[in-house]
Amino acid sequence: MWHIIVTSTPQLIEAGLKYTIPISVISFILGLVLALVTALIRISTKKGAFWILKGIARFYVWLFRSTPLLVQLFIVYFGLPYLKIAGLFPNGIQMSPVTAGILTFSLNTGAYCAETIRGAILSIPNGQWEAAYSIGMTRTTVLRRIILPQAVRVSLPPLANSFIGLVKDTSLAASITIVEMFEVSQQIAAQNYQPLVMYCLVAALYAVVCTALSWLQGYLEKVTSRYVTTSN
């Protein structure tokens, strides 16, 4: 067993550094950008045609929160190649496994994080908006200088949890042939006929990564809360 662990661990770590971590980081960054845009659209008070954008944003969040991530991966990677549009995609929408994985993880993360950011913004008391308006600030300035900095602190714990969850969810990328840590563990298990050892080993590696991220989350929470006064 120890021989298997010693020989397999470097391969799993290499797969993690090559695919698991980069896919997680890139997908989370893109998802955060999408989430912020979606959240701002949903809390906007603009009228008229802007309601169409709000409807699209609401539908996007509903769609990706209401369907399983594995199904979303299959639709993007296996299903879209059959979506043939004359003049645009005559051969269907085809993409590499990594591109499909990042796209799907980004869209899924964006939908969940959008609600987190929206809730954090709405949690800021209305009095702060009114006070800022009273000294002549525009809505954009209020968001940038007063509301969003506070919303970052409020949303940090759930956003960090979403990132940790995303790191674990990348194991689903094996289903679309991405050779990340879980896929490598399956390949090695097929060779040495020790699935229990391999699956426990890859689980331990995921646990190490997620524990490190949890420590980082705690540190960031302390940093962002250092100016917050607490009362007993």
Quote the CATH topology of one domain: MetI-like fold
Order of helices and strands: HHHHHHHH
As a percent range, the share of strand residues is: under 5%
Give the integer mean of the pLDDT values: 91
* Multimerization state: single chain
- Report the uncertain regions: none
Instruction: Name the CATH class of one domain.
Output: Mainly Alpha
**Beginning-to-end CA distance, first to last residue:** 53 Å
Structural class: mainly alpha
Number of strands: 0
User: How many helices does DSSP assign?
Assistant: 8
* Corresponding CATH architecture of one domain: Orthogonal Bundle
Bin the helical content. Answer: over 70%
Task: Characterize the structure shown.
The protein contains 8 helices and no strands. It is an all-alpha fold. The protein has a domain at 22-182: MetI-like (MetI-like fold). α1 (2-43) packs across α4 (97-122), α1 (2-43) runs antiparallel to α7 and α1 crosses α8. The relative contact order is 0.15. The mean pLDDT is 91. It is a multi-pass membrane protein. InterPro entries: AA_ABC_transptr_permease_3TM, ArtM/GltK/GlnP/TcyL/YhdX-like, MetI-like, MetI-like_sf. Belongs to the binding-protein-dependent transport system permease family.
Strand and helix layout:
Layout: H1 2-43, H2 50-66, H3 69-79, H4 97-122, H5 126-134, H6 139-169, H7 181-192, H8 195-224
Helix pairs in contact: 1-2, 1-4, 1-7, 1-8, 2-4, 3-4, 4-6, 5-6, 6-8, 7-8
Q: What's this model, at a glance?
A:
This protein has helices at residues 2-43, 50-66, 69-79, 97-122, 126-134, 139-169, 181-192, 195-224.
